[in-house]
């Protein structure tokens, strides 16, 4: 099958450049969805559009056999591109800064290769193009919009992500591989007044500051050291003028965990700390809590991952490596959860291998290697596209 890769490469590369130049934010992926649907139809797949809003599903049946789902996410980020690429985003403030354009292009290529080589496999290949991964509700939206009824039973689900590692590498990992994520907006209340008369006020800036300090002790003093937890307060908004004490403050924080029981305990501890600090400051009102942008824990199935890792080792040789667990988050697992299917999620590199080695040798990876969500993140075209396409085909053929 992969001997046809040069034919696919001929249209993949210009298609990738087009997608990169025309990014669309979460839930707005209408043009991208149209490009995907047209390409799938050209490859001979049965296409279903508008699943979960802008989601697209392509189904390719080839006799009796396993049913394998492969997923790519489509949305971009509200980032202004600074890569300097000749095909940089044509839309100010919107950029494919996480490589979802790579994912779409690779899955379209894999679908074409399966369609061109029916003698090499049996079963059903299901290509899912998911919207709104960046806001954490795209996979859930497709599931709630009847994805299970549309695709039927699924034996295994597969997904991948390009990341800042040498292009040409693929990396797998069993067990927890990406963290759960929860964002929380907390509003605490004070009593406003003149900055020269603090004794007549309850200062919400001081209250918010004490909360930030105390929250850091949750990880250091309430979580077992063997557990990985990241708690970040990313935003504090309070007041309007230097000599005015306002009447409220809004904190926004982000939590990353790798264990559901730890996740529950830390979320409860956050509430406990905030309420206690409000009481200590004599806050006139109870604090308010809003959870949003929740991402599930990504836990790769051991047996599925072992099967894919063995196939990668055979095909890629020493380019197949082990992936470290990451504190990034992803909503892909909501799809196999809704389908009752085991899954695995792997990474593949997108940074020029020579540049990566030079950065490592000079101990300059933090400066020279742009990471996902950076305005400078621009995976090299090749061998990134080839590797991502090959990985999907090799993994799919492990069942098909």
TrEMBL record:
Needed co-factor(s): Mn(2+)
Cofactor note: The Mn(2+) ion enhances activity.
Record-linked SUPFAM superfamilies: Bacterial exopeptidase dimerisation domain, Zn-dependent exopeptidases
Binding site for Mn(2+): 98, 100, 134, 161
One GO molecular-function entry: metal ion binding
Domain of life: Bacteria
GO aspect biological process, one term: diaminopimelate biosynthetic process
This protein's UniProt keywords: Hydrolase, Manganese, Metal-binding
Pfam families attached to this UniProt entry: M20_dimer, Peptidase_M20
Residue ranges occupied by any Peptidase M20 dimerisation domain in the UniProt entry: 183-277
InterPro entries linked: Amidohydrolase, Bact_exopeptidase_dim_dom, Peptidase_M20, Peptidase_M20_dimer
Protein known as: Amidohydrolase
């Amino acid at each position: 099958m992969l001997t046809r890769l040069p034919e696919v490469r001929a249209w993949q590369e210009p298609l990738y450049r087009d997608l990169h130049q025309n990014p669309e934010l979460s839930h707005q992926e209408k043009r991208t969805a149209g490009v995907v649907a047209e390409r799938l139809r050209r490859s001979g797949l049965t296409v279903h559009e508008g699943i979960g809003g802008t989601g697209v599903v392509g189904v390719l049946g080839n006799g009796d056999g396993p049913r394998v789902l492969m997923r790519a996410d489509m949305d971009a980020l509200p980032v202004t591109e600074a890569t300097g690429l000749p095909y940089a985003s044509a839309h100010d403030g919107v950029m494919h800064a996480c490589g979802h354009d790579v994912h779409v292009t690779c899955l379209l290529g894999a679908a074409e290769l399966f369609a061109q080589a029916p003698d090499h496999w049996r079963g059903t290949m299901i290509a899912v193009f998911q919207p709104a991964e960046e806001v954490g509700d795209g996979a859930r939206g497709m599931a709630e919009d009847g994805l299970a009824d549309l695709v039927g039973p699924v034996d295994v689900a597969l997904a991948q992500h390009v990341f800042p590692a040498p292009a040409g590498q693929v990396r797998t990992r069993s067990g927890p591989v990406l963290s759960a994520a929860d964002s929380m907006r907390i509003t605490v209340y004070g009593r406003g007044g003149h900055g020269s008369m603090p004794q007549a006020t309850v200062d919400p800036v001081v209250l918010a500051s004490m909360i930030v300090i105390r929250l850091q002790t949750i990880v250091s003093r309430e979580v077992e050291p063997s557990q990985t937890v990241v708690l970040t307060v990313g935003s504090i908004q309070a007041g309007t003028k230097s000599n005015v004490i306002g009447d409220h403050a809004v904190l926004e924080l982000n939590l990353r965990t790798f264990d559901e029981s730890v996740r529950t305990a830390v979320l409860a501890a956050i509430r406990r700390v905030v309420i206690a600090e409000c009481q200590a400051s004599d806050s006139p009102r109870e604090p308010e809590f809003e959870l949003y942008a929740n991402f599930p824990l990504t836990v790769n199935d051991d047996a599925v991952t072992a099967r894919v890792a063995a196939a990668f080792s055979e095909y890629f040789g020493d380019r197949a490596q082990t992936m470290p667990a990451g504190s990034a988050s992803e909503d892909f697992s909501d799809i196999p959860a809704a389908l009752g299917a085991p899954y695995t999620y792997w990474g593949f590199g997108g940074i020029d291998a020579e540049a990566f080695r030079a950065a490592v040798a000079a101990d300059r990876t933090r400066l020279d290697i742009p990471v996902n969500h950076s305005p400078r993140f621009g995976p090299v075209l090749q061998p990134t596209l080839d590797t991502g396409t090959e990985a999907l085909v090799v993994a799919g053929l492990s069942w098909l």
